[in-house]
Automatic annotation (TrEMBL):
Gene3D superfamilies xrefs: 3.30.70.3040
Keywords on record: Cell cycle, Cell division, Cell membrane, Membrane, Transmembrane, Transmembrane helix
UniProt domain FtsX extracellular: residue ranges: 56-165
Lineage: Bacteria, Bacillati, Actinomycetota, Actinomycetes, Kitasatosporales
Job of this protein: Part of the ABC transporter FtsEX involved in cellular division.
Subunit structure: Forms a membrane-associated complex with FtsE.
Descriptive protein name: Cell division protein FtsX
Principal location class: membrane
Domain of life: Bacteria
GO cellular component terms listed in the entry, alphabetical order: plasma membrane
Membrane topology: Multi-pass membrane protein
Species of origin: Streptomyces globosus
Residues spanning the membrane: 21-41, 181-205, 241-260, 281-304
Amino acid sequence: MRAQFVMSEIGVGLRRNLTMTFAVVISVALSLALFGGSLLMRDQVSKMKGYWYDKVNVSIYLCNKSDAEDSSELGSRACAKGAATPEQKQQIQTDLEKMELVQTVHYESSDEAYKHYKERFGHTALASVITPDQMPDSFRVKLTKPEKYKVITTAFAGRDGVQSVADQHTELDNLFQMLGYLNWAALGIMLIMLVVALLLIVNTVRVSAFSRRRETGIMRLVGASSFYIQVPFIMEAAFAGLIGAVFACVMLGAGQYFVIDHGASLRTKMELINFIGWDEVLTKLPLVLAIGVLMPSLAAFLALRKYLRV
């Protein structure tokens, strides 16, 4: 097969269907950019989980006098026996330190809790009416295996002197669940764009084959094989898909550079979040390029089986 003939046929096909080819390129670029973005979002969520789940603590809040009074008035059983005694506090700390799951135990007094509260929420109206005696004493527990935080809840919830056992995993789980929904939404939009791109590719190949039906008929009469006739059309679709994939890679790289890394980006504004780096982005680009070439080629091949009959 002469490469010069194939390349000339590709050029002819692209010029004849320039607007449809442009639509194919844009559709492929957007769908693949969403696809790559979804993969990167999944990596980001996994990285955030590993980073934050390793840092969160389990907090055991102890009963104080205010809690005991509220319990007696409202009929609550959590602190019905009064504020936590020094003996109860010592027993809780001893039991915590004996557990292999526990890495460190930090006792935070009500005065320390009030100080930290004022530092974080001192600008709010509620902070002006909160007093130190309303803040509970607590134990901040760091675990060697954060995913087993429920062991602490089971062991200490409901004990005398314990108001409640709280962990930060619940809030993080809600956050990661929301991010997961956003990722699924991006995948849904990507699938819609992918279907649009495939339909455009099929229509483009159909129009191109119809406009060159006389040439393909002559080629068939002189003995050209079906594969020889189909190659220019398949390569047209693959070329358009490749251009779209390149644009998608550029969009992913630009997003990483301008949104996350460069200047006043998320990495500088949100220092507490461990963002993905270029390694994750670069590993996705070959997959995006491969799909950008193979998807249009396969669509064109299937379309030609029906529409290229002479």
